Amino acid sequence: MKCVLVFSLIFTTALALDNDSRSQEDRKIELSAQGILARVDRILKYPRGLARGALKHIRPDGSSAFTSFKGFIAGDDCLFTFTSSERGDQLKVLYSLGGEDIWVYDILALKLFHKLGIDKYDEILSTNFSYIDLAHADFQSNYTAAIQGPAFVKGTDAYKLVLNPIAKGGEYGGLTMYVSRDRYIPLRIDFLDRDKAIFKFMTVVKVMENDRRIIPVRYDMMNIRQGTLTIMSFTEFDETASFDKEIFRSEKLGE
Predict the structure, then answer these.
(1) Would you say residue 20 lies in a domain?
(2) Listed residue (157, 206, 211) closest to 184, CA to CA
(3) CB neighbours (10 Å) of residue 248?
């Protein structure tokens, strides 16, 4: 009887230690997932200064629309102006508080909009990028992450991360992110709707290195349902540019 009791105690203790060990291991995995997100956020953050680039939207029939943009970037504040050759300056988009606060000024309609809630997911000039996509608000602050396992993307070993939104009610029901194991570049991000079905995905096609920092210079956003592709490319970064920070006030957008 004593032998049975001793064996039971040993077995119970071993089981408890094993469960505790697994629990600690799970916590380490969760922490490493958030750590990977932090590195991704650093890569996606726009460099300070002046940025120039273009959006090219390609439709299923092969036709396309081209819009150039200019961005003034100062830490957590960004102001983008979108221009087309046919209509001139069309839109100003102001991101404040690290992309959490979004203001849009329609230059042609002379109207100012404060994008809140679901409106942050509106398309920018009928492209596949929404306002929240270009905000580059921290994934780490807005999603919980878990590593689902290894992956092989574009010839590169990667982590597969599953991201769930902290705040409910947005258009994205979740994200699946593939991050390179060597440099933590977000190779591909799948955007899921509220039913957890993928409806578009973004790939980082090209990066540059500046002072040991990795900067994406081309993003491709594919809308699976519409069969459209939007290419966002950066052609210039001038980190020496200076500008008046008054431009980051929403009431100044119409001036």
Answers:
(1) no
(2) 157
(3) 21
With tokens 């990028």, the residue in question is: 129
Task: Tell me the backbone φ, ψ of residue 245, rounded to 5 degrees.
Answer: -70, -5
The neighbour count for residue 61, using CB atoms within 10 Å, is: 7
Beta strands in the chain (DSSP E): 49-58, 64-74, 77-84, 88-96, 101-106, 111-115, 143-153, 156-165, 174-180, 186-192, 198-210, 213-223, 228-238
CATH of the domain at 117: 2.50.20.10
| pLDDT tens per residue, range 191-232 | 999 999 999 999 999 999 988 899 999 999 999 999 999 999
What are the tens digits of pLDDT across the range 92-136? 999 999 899 999 999 999 999 999 999 999 999 999 999 999 999
Residue at 3 is within a domain: no
The closest alpha carbon to 186, from 210, 174, 163, 202, belongs to 202
Gap between the Cα atoms of 15 and 13, Å rounded: 5
Helix (H), strand (E) at residue 2: helix 2-44
Structural domains of the chain, count: 1
Token output for 182? 């060597």
